[in-house]
């Protein structure tokens, strides 16, 4: 905890900010990329959102109060940037959020960065059909192995609500994956 406070102080100090920020990017870019990628599903979009996320983190690091872990704060920014990106993309295409999700899943097969097999594609299709909150909670718990307490800070939701969302998501995924 003391180490993180020193790191945050370096990020907020004009003289050490750039070096500390390079370290931050190096340390978190892959984790944040995959978090974003599971939301937006497309590699190029994930890269764009990741860049926007780091710009927002850089511009707002002086506002970080330390009420949550730095990691949780950054994940919240990445999550919000991803959801905003998807809403804007749907609005620009004049389609619903659900239609956009379906379109993104269909495009996964053509995405040269998607290395999944048939079952992984089917899982992604099933995840895309989940309501937004269940989709976020499932991805964070299943793929990123976050604890409910961490997710609670990131999504600003109670642990009980998150457990319920995860349970419902798993049930819906099981139903979807076993129907044929």
Automatic annotation (TrEMBL):
Residues 24-90 form the RNA polymerase sigma-70 region domain. Keywords: DNA-directed RNA polymerase, Sigma factor, Transcription, Transcription regulation. Residues 121-173 form the RNA polymerase sigma factor 70 region 4 type domain. InterPro entries: RNA_pol_sigma-70-like (IPR039425), RNA_pol_sigma-70_dom (IPR014284), RNA_pol_sigma70_r2 (IPR007627), RNA_pol_sigma70_r4_t2 (IPR013249), RNA_pol_sigma_r2 (IPR013325), RNA_pol_sigma_r3/r4-like (IPR013324), WH-like_DNA-bd_sf (IPR036388). The keyword Metal-binding does not apply. The keyword Isomerase does not apply. SUPFAM superfamilies: Sigma2 domain of RNA polymerase sigma factors, Sigma3 and sigma4 domains of RNA polymerase sigma factors. One of its GO terms (cellular component) is DNA-directed RNA polymerase complex. Belongs to the sigma-70 factor family. ECF subfamily. This is DNA-directed RNA polymerase sigma-70 factor. It comes from Neptunitalea lumnitzerae.
């Amino acid at each position: 905890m003391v180490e993180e406070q020193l790191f945050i102080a370096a990020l907020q100090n004009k003289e050490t900010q750039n070096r500390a920020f390079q370290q931050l990017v190096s340390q978190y870019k892959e984790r944040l990329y995959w978090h974003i990628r599971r939301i937006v599903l497309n590699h190029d979009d994930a890269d764009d959102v990741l860049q926007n996320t780091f710009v927002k983190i850089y511009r707002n690091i002086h506002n970080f109060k330390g009420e949550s872990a730095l990691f949780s704060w950054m994940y919240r920014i990445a999550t919000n940037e991803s959801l905003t990106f998807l809403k804007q993309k749907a609005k620009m295409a004049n389609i619903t959020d659900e239609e956009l999700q379906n379109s993104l899943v269909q495009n996964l097969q053509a995405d040269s960065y998607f290395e999944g097999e048939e079952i992984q594609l089917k899982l992604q299709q099933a995840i895309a059909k989940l309501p937004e909150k269940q989709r976020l909670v499932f991805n964070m718990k299943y793929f990123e192995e976050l604890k409910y307490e961490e997710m609670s800070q990131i999504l600003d939701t109670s642990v009980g609500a998150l457990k319920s969302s995860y349970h419902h998501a798993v049930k819906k995924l099981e139903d979807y994956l076993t129907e044929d």
